[in-house]
Amino acid sequence: MWPPLAALLRRLSSHPFDSPAIHANLVKSSSISSPIPATALLTAYANAGLPAAASRLFDEMPTRDAVAWNALLACLVCHARPCAAVAAFRDMATAGFTPTATTLCTMAKACATSRALRPGRQVHARSILACQGDVIMATTLVDLYMSCGLVEEALRLFMCTDCPKDVALYNAVISGCVENGRFREAFFILGRIELNGITLTCALTACSATANLMYGMQVHCKALRGGFTLETILCNALIDMYAKCGRTTAARMVFDRMACRNVVSWSSMIDAYSHHGHGEAALDLFKRMDETVPVVLPNAITFLAVLSACGQSGLVDEGRAMFHLMKRQYGINPGPEHYACFIDLLGRAGQIDEAWDLYCSFSTTRSELSGSICVAMLNACRANMDVVRGNKVALHLLEVDPENPGSHVLISNFHAAARQWFESDESRRIIMDKGLRKEAARKTGLAPLAPHFGTPSLREGERWFGMALGRREERGLELSLGLHGYFSISSSPGQAVKLAISLFKMDP
């Protein structure tokens, strides 16, 4: 019996898609009752992309050992079923099996993917003894806490771990800090390690979010010295960084020198032109996509960038053509974002009737309206002073997104522009009664990396502004937020401008 069984198991490892036939042979020979061939078959089902068959086989196993449990957990995690993996881990503990280091590493990954903090803490507690000094476990736990937004705990674990820190652990910490908006900590760690391709990409993401051109250029230089500039993902991050910092020429230079461009590269460069008002350049670049070898097909994000570019530059006919080209030539159904962008384009151009027809066509073909479409249509009604349609859209927006304070503020501003003072005050009152708070603006500069944007200047500005308001009160002048004067800002073309703005809450 065993030589044929050994041959079957060897075939399972090299031909996982033969699992159903081998499963039938194992059942026929009664070998399936042994945990060794059953576990091998379970792993083969997992490798063949059949997690349901693997779970069913596990449920039918008469005897299970720790290896079988680990195989099931690995299968569930590998096939993006983290919640099922967490439930299976609880069943494993109930069955009396002690989790091994392999089990804990697998479960830490499952908890990080599903953001299951409570079982993740339990895994962390068990790993203190079972996985002491294991860098893989430390990396997974850092990823868990970062994915749950617990940056302080992740940093504490990173600093206190006694395992040798490798590149994967550093990348987990840096990427977690960037995703949670903790750019200061990300830059601090970046300055103390040897950068690789993944770390450079994380650094450029932080530079893009903070518009930190100086550090971004340093990262670019390190990428050139390290020979990483041939990587497509890194070049895409460079394009985004230069675009966010207002350097479209530098972004285009990186784009032109790329050895291999994917759809993300084209979309990023088109979006860069869009944000800086270069609509014609964005359209020209889009037309060049069909001339590439091999041809790079645009996706929904590419068309969104093109529509935005047309809206920023007032290219109504071109935007209309692109909106209809999506479905007709590329088979891409316009989503809510595309409708909102095109409605905004039509509203800016004063074509409120066409914008309204487009808005109504979306509301009749889709089961639910999107908040972004309602916002775009309401802005179009406000710009064209279409009060009747605007009142209808305001009601739709309240139905779609009633708990968003920004929606109430937008509706209040629309009513105020239409001189509907009672309705405007009512929208403000709803915000107060529900306790809604509109997210305040925040400065994105980093004091150590941008000394000209530090806190002393902000405090001085607040003190100056307060004294100015006091003098106006003493002189009996009105207090308002109108434009009583203009501040001229001189900068070279294409240079990003950082403004330190102090926000004051004033009683009406």
UniProtKB/TrEMBL annotation:
PPR repeats: 65-99, 166-200, 262-292, 299-329
Keyword Lipoprotein: no
Keywords annotated in UniProt: Repeat, Transit peptide
Xref: InterPro entries: E_motif (IPR046848), PPR_At4g14850-like_plant (IPR046960), PPR_rpt (IPR002885), TPR-like_helical_dom_sf (IPR011990)
Single Gene Ontology MF annotation: RNA binding
Transit peptide recorded as keyword: yes
GO process annotations (BP): RNA modification
Organism superkingdom: Eukaryota
Protein name as annotated: Pentacotripeptide-repeat region of PRORP domain-containing protein
Organism: Oryza glumipatula
